[in-house]
Amino acid sequence: MTSREYVGEKSNRSDSDDGLYVLAVQEAVKSYESFSVFKRNPHYQAVLEHVSEELGHQYLEIIKRDSPALFENIEVFKKNDLIGNPTVFGYPDIGIMSPTTLRYIKVTSDLIKLFGSHIGERVVEIGGGYGGQALINDSVFRMKEYELLDLPPVLSLISRYLESHIMNCAYKVTTLNQKTGDDYYDLVISNYAFSELPSHVQIRYIEKIVRKSSRGYLTMNSGLTETSHPVKKLSLEQLRNYLPSFDVFEEHPLTGPENYIIAWGHSNKL
């Protein structure tokens, strides 16, 4: 049987803390050989780096339609494919690229559409993955500091990944327990990670991070029903009681039947 490594006590674990993902992350941090190919590790791909070729095409079309400036400068974003040996495909007009990177660019396009070209100096991301979204955002927005919150082993991978590049803004990594709740942010981002946390952990993130952010962009995959996840999450109705007043937008393209986007502090619609 495959061994498993967990971080959180069982009731505190997110959906990604399944015992195999953390092992893959630890391997990537431990040796350069594993780090150089970590995006191909099947246990890692089960959580990240699993965007399909077809979804990549759809993300590309949205980028071309909504953010032509990003499309015209798409070569800049290929730096996200230089490390980790991601699965890549050939796409019209842009050549070889990872569909996961195209997804990150699409999120950046959404941020521009919602908030304009300036998202603020202090940005925080809940669930930083390996730092890909941070790297793409850093190439587009003028930020002072980008903070990423995740599991301790994941934070080590983020640091190793981002230190492989030269960033424009400063970044820091931390866990929820290391936060006092005294910091304020211009924008909070989460690509599914917040929605995959148990409800009591979501509430702590809301108290310490989310409610301290004047703008928000959360891609969700829970909250519409009570049966879609084995561990209880906050419902959409409950989120309205906890979060700043927000709008709900459809996810495009829709990557799961219960996915949607929450945003507040925006001047435009998706």
Structure characterization notes:
- The chain is an alpha/beta fold and 270 residues long.
- It has a single domain (53-264), classed as 3-Layer(aba) Sandwich (Rossmann fold).
- It is built from eleven helices and nine strands.
- The protein has helices at 21-30, 32-35, 42-45, 53-66, 68-72, 74-77, 99-115, 132-140, 152-162, 199-208, 236-242; strands at residues 89-91, 95-97, 122-126, 145-149, 170-174, 187-191, 216-220, 247-250, 260-264.
- The strands form two sheets. A seven-stranded mixed sheet has the order 5-4-3-6-7-9-8, with helices on one face. Strands 1-2 form a two-stranded antiparallel sheet.
- The mean pLDDT is 94.
- Examine the secondary-structure arrangement and name the CATH architecture: 3-Layer(aba) Sandwich
Rg, rounded, reads 17 Å
The CATH superfamily name is Vaccinia Virus protein VP39
Q: Would you tell me the overall average pLDDT?
A: 94
What is the H/E order? HHHHHHEEHEHEHEEHEHEE
Count of DSSP helices? 11
**Largest sheet, spatial ordering of strands:** 5-4-3-6-7-9-8
* Percentage of residues in helical conformation: 25-40%
Low-confidence stretches: none
Count of all domains? 1
- Summing up helix and strand content along with how strands pair, one would put the structural category as alpha/beta
